[in-house]
Amino acid sequence: MDEVNIGPIACGSKATPLTIIAGPCVIENRDLTLSIAESLRGFCEELGLPLVFKASFDKANRTSGTAFRGLGIQEGLRVLEEVGQTLGLPTVTDIHLPEQAAPAAEVCQLLQIPAFLARQTDLLLAAAQTDRPINVKKGQFMAPQDMQYVLEKLRTAGAAGVLLCERGTFFGYGRLVNDMQSLPLMRSFGAPVIFDATHSVQQPGGLGGATGGNREMVWPLARAAVAVGVDGVFLETHPDPDTSPSDGANMVPLDSVQKLLSQLRDLSRVVSGW
């Protein structure tokens, strides 16, 4: 298993606890983003879990063209830079275009490839040419074994490290399901595997012009993934998810995140002893 260094965090190391990648879906404004980051840092410090803070400067794949997309790359990266400098947290954000890789890498310690773009070779190569590791979300339309070719593209291009992320598979219209077999299968490729607990409960297009979801299912799916044996868990959170301009239906309320992370930490300790 290749260890992937995300700033001071060694994801995939037997000595490193479960890696947590968490934050709001999109950067709404500076103050809210820093407030969420500070709360998450406190939770993870108390639980002894390493945290990578996640927020998107642009949601380029919104269902509706009129939906809120974020602050844009310049202002969004400025906010993420402040999170890193003031709170001492490594950060990650999505990139959608090859030209976004270099500026995002100047600020963030991890780059993320959205699921819909997992096979976009030019985007993968641009990310690999930075000195940052990459978290690639498995496309909802892809079999887990197909991710070995994504991994091969990135490694051949000299990527600093690769995480493979499971986030559910299309099951008819407006529904995602999780095949837990995909987690050990992708891990067998030699890359750490992350389970995206909140996007896995999305209901694409479930609200007509917006994506729906069922946040109550985040808890059992996250526990199941940790029991199977993953290297990290990804989740999105918000103080009031129902008012979030993006993915509110599947986000975990911020005031319940610590309880969920405590359960996942305790379960991961049991699993690590098997």
Structure description:
It is a single chain. With 274 residues, the chain is an alpha/beta fold. The chain has a single domain (4-268), classed as Alpha-Beta Barrel (TIM Barrel), CATH 3.20.20. The protein contains 8 helices and 15 strands. It has helices at 30-47, 73-87, 101-107, 121-128, 147-156, 182-187, 218-228, 254-272; strands at residues 4-6, 9-11, 19-23, 51-54, 91-94, 110-113, 134-137, 162-166, 169-170, 176-177, 193-196, 202-203, 212-213, 232-238, 252-253. The strands form 4 sheets. Strands 3-4-5-6-7-8-11-14 form an 8-stranded parallel β-barrel, surrounded by 6 helices. It has a two-stranded antiparallel ribbon with strand order 1-2. Strands 9-10 form a two-stranded antiparallel sheet. The mean pLDDT is 93.
Which topology does CATH recognise?
TIM Barrel
Give the SSE string: EEEHEHEHEHEHEEEHEEEHEEH
* Classification by helices and strands: alpha/beta
Strand order of the largest sheet: 3-4-5-6-7-8-11-14
CATH architecture: Alpha-Beta Barrel
CATH superfamily: Aldolase class I
Strand fraction: 15-25%
- What is the percent of helical residues? 25-40%
Number of helices: 8
* Top CATH class: Alpha Beta
Domain count: the total is 1
Unreliably modeled segments: none
Question: What is the alpha-carbon Rg in Å?
Answer: 17 Å
**Separation of termini?**
17 Å
Largest sheet: 8 strands, parallel, barrel
Subcellular location: Cytoplasm
EC number: 2.5.1.55
Family: Belongs to the KdsA family.
Main location: cytoplasm
